[in-house]
Amino acid sequence: MGEPLSLAPSLLEIRNVSKVYQGGFLRPGQQLVALQDFSLIVPEKPARITAIAGESGSGKTTLANLILGFIGPTSGQILYRGADISAMSPQQKLQYARQVQAVLQDPYAAYNPFYRVKHIFDLVIKNFKLARNQPAARELIEEALKMVGMRGEEVLEKYPHQLSGGQRQRMMVARAYLLKPSLIVADEPVSMVDASLRAMILDIMLKLREQQNISFLYITHDLSTAYQVCDDIYVLYQGSIAEKGDTVRVIENPKHPYVKLLIESIPVPDPNQKWDTNVTLPSEEELRSQVDTGCRFYPRCPYHMDRCLVKQPLLYRIDSDNHQAACYLYDQTLPEDQSGVTVQQAGNKDE
Amino acid sequence: MTVTLNLTNSDRDPARNTVVLQVEKLRVHYATPLGDVIAVNGVDLKVFERETIGLVGESGCGKSTLAMSILRLVQPPGRIVSGQVLLLGMDITALNEAELRQVRWNQIALIPQGAMNSLNPVMRVKDQITEAIETHQGKRPPQELKERILRLLAMVGLPGRVYNMFPHELSGGMKQRVCIAMAIALTPSIIIADEPTSALDVVVQRVVAQTLLDVKRTLGVSMILIGHDMGLMAQLVDRIAVMYAGNIVEIAPVKDLFAEPLHPYTQLLIASIPSVKERKPLVVTEGLTHDLRRPPPGCIFQLRCPFVMDKCREVVPPLRELRPNHFVACHLY
User: Fold this and answer.
1) Strands B320-323, B326-328: pairing kind
2) Is-contact B243 B301, C-beta < 8 A?
């Protein structure tokens, strides 16, 4: 829906995927909906950086794990170039594992401290039989390192603890690049890297998109870095999409009350513009009383209406298909019930 | 400067307020098999009454080590090599363990990095705060304690029922506020908060930051806030000290520092703040480049500095007051 129709399948398509975790040993019967009816399309060309943004517990890492095949969806489908990843042949699976790479949050945990860092490249080259001999392998590694602005002689013979966090994370990107993937799932790649080094990693992502046609799923809690580099954004709240669309439109002109709150809460780097309002969170009891049927943001929403409790809102268009928010404030269809007046007024206020 | 053991706030700076804490020429080294890593390299810092000072810099620049050495909590292989830490005129580096115990928490409280994970998972909130109070002030009547703890919880914006709860029943932001309540339990004159809001979601971060500001206003306590988020600093602090590889390179009132950053490193830090107001090209930089065991002669920032001159490779630039209250260590000026 929304994206221009084309005959070629999308690079990645997620169709109405839900993931429900069953209660464990101590709490049988209790369910946790980590991801609910989530859909997403990454087109084949041109390469795009798509942000999946949300707070902790919003389901973003569940989504990464689903795409990488670590866990299976409770319902729905994940299609890679038209093929359902849960129904792939071993041959296809291998191809998928090669073409969809991951860069994860903690660049410290990804290395075995007993091996020189060269090991992470050697493993990949061996497992995927990328090179016939040592010199060819070295050439591949050097090329990948060059892409992230490093040189083999500087780093390859070192041990992981001798590298800085930024260097380690760049090496992980280089490792992913070695396989010439079509998609890199980057789960919080810069959250453990210093502010001054974040730009470098983000810049590498832009470069890989421009020069190598590699798409990214950039999973983050940080809307400001998403705003700097991403083409599309999906903002999640407790497992559902709150708002999605063109990143610049969504961040500069957020519509969903939750996304507005998120953006207002980012500290402004200007001492002359101090926070002037007080944000309060409802007491924990309210937050935990899961809204089973209606909008999940209901307990915190300043605009909540009666109809929000009845059914979870669908994604409504804001001004184009490229900007949608899951909020009844933007329901343009004439509602039959009495809440119509409120809806109209609140909707117009923001136009 | 001569130092006397003096508790009567006589160290008044005529132009400013009372100095609560003064760090003088503090050096902290970490011993390694290949020589000492210089974590804090002769740092001078003053904290005035009722002010919040921000300490910023990338990881590994020594900001947490500096904070820990103020409390004399650096663990081996780290050690304070030289220098003094004066709290209301009293030299902390010269105290014995028993005297130190009197100072810690009564006078200086610490909110450590990841404080919310430092709560004991099998103790109720009331018992943890009671312990903090009784360790330093001795036994108290239960009724007085309860009232006091409830007052503390109210001060950090937590409902009274938190009193009886266990840490796992609280969210990250609430746990962090319990830690703030513990830090202010004995009305210290200074609080050191090491990255108090990192690892929290942005909305919760804002609530915790507001709590810190409220507490500071009500109690009139001084605060050292350590972090790397320049945006948060802009919102929370009065003055900022920028640290690079163990050295303070610039100290200024926060408005002056943002309006006119003088040190090239500060300029870089400010230029690389991601914004949600305008999409701008990324400022790409290298991280810490030199070996901390062997800092280059001259300016500490020379290897990354875009304006490096010959002089920078030979002479260490001193921290000079270039504008009123605006100190910078750079040969450009």
Assistant:
1) antiparallel
2) no
Residue of B nearest to A168 (CA): B287
* Spatial separation of the C-alpha atoms in residues A6 and A30, rounded to whole Å: 42
Closest CA to B321 of B311, B309, B312, B333: B333
From first CA to last CA, the distance across chain A in angstroms is: 24
Q: Quickly list DSSP for A263-323.
A: HHHSPPS-TTS---S------HHHHHS--SSS-TTGGG-TT--THHHHS----EEEEETTE
Taking the CA atoms of residue A84, residue A86, residue A89 and residue A92 in that order, the dihedral angle to the nearest 10 degrees is: 60
Side chain identity at A245, as an amino acid letter? G
- Specify the 3-state DSSP secondary structure of A135: helix
Query: Treating both helix axes as pointing N-terminal to C-terminal, what angle do A118-127 and A134-147 enclose, rounded to 10 degrees?
Result: 120
Task: Write out pLDDT tens, residues A247-276.
Answer: 999 999 999 999 998 898 888 888 888 777
pTM: 0.82
- The answer for residues whose C-beta is within 8 angstroms of residue B98's C-beta and 6 or more apart is none
Q: Which residues of chain A have pLDDT under 50?
A: 1-3, 336-351
Rounded CA gap, B115 and B177, in Å? 10
| Tokens standing for residue A331 | 């329901």
Nearest neighbour of A199 by CB, restricted to B210, B276, B283? B283
A275, two tokens: 């926070």
Q: Is the dihedral of CA B245, B250, B254, B258 positive or negative?
A: negative
Give the closest-approach CA distance of B99 to chain A in angstroms.
Answer: 38
> Cβ A228–B279 below 8 Å, yes or no?
yes
If you measure CA to CA, which chain A residue comes closest to B267?
A196
